[in-house]
Amino acid sequence: MSSADSSRHAVEWFGALWTYTFKRRDRTFNEIYSEKNASKNRRIGFVLQLLAILIIIGIIILVISNPEVTFTSI
Is-contact 53 25, C-beta < 8 A? Predict the structure, then answer.
């Protein structure tokens, strides 16, 4: 399995997990994580991955632009 396949399956899995967690409607995880729903799961997973990357970049920019901000109080 190539890294592209691994990445695609990971994105699909995260999309299925999101759907199962927040929009379950009495369906099992195996029903959601099926070939029938693969493209929808990939789209949801891609959006979640993109959102996570943008949040991380935003935090990095915030910390770089304002050195007084520290996360030691967390």
Answer: no
What confidence tens digit (pLDDT) does each residue in 4-13 have? 778 888 899 9
- The C-alpha atoms of residue 28 and residue 53 are separated, in whole angstroms, by 29
Place of tokens 């959102």: 51
Q: List, in sequence order, every beta strand (DSSP E) within 1-74.
A: none
Has this prediction a pTM greater than 0.70?
yes
Any idea how long the chain is? Answer: 74
Cα(47)–Cα(62) distance, rounded to whole angstroms?
22
At residue 64, what is the residue type?
Answer: I
74 has a pLDDT exceeding 60? no
Which of the 8 DSSP states describes residue 33?
Answer: S
Phi-psi region of 26 (alpha: psi -120 to 50; beta: other; left: phi over 0): left
